User: Which sequence fits this backbone?
């Protein structure tokens, strides 16, 4: 297991926690297949299928948060959305590289070195503040514009 559920901070919104749990399960499943990759086309296609599901899940995950941020006029919406866009593009770029090169080392490096740290940081900072705003309506900007 790459990421345990205990490694992921809880935020004040159940729908966000549930989505993060689903995300971790997908990530761990993909990582198991990365570790088991044997160079065969069947093994590569399994990773392709799972990675595609992960991208689709992540798009839906980010869209749910972004729609709620817009509905509630969350002041730092653009910063949070920008980080979503950046992370999603990084996932897509890596997947494209994987599909073209079948570079399992690049996948391992991303999943081990980049992804867990990003997920921990994003949830403990941006998602925590966003969830608190969803719960209270209080701006993380102290009444000012972010």
Assistant:
């Amino acid at each position: 297991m790459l990421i345990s559920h205990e490694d992921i901070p809880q935020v004040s919104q159940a729908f966000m926690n549930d989505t993060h749990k689903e995300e971790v399960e997908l990530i761990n499943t993909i990582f198991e297949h990365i570790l088991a990759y044997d160079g065969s086309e069947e093994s590569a296609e399994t990773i392709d299928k799972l990675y595609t599901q992960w991208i689709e899940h992540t798009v839906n995950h980010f869209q749910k948060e972004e729609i709620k941020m817009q509905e509630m006029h969350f002041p730092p919406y653009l910063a949070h959305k920008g980080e979503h866009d950046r992370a999603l593009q990084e996932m897509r770029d890596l997947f494209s590289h994987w599909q073209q090169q079948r570079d399992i080392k690049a996948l391992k490096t991303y999943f081990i070195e980049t992804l867990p740290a990003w997920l921990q940081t994003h949830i403990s900072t941006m998602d925590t503040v966003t969830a608190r705003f969803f719960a209270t309506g209080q701006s993380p900007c102290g009444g000012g514009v972010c």
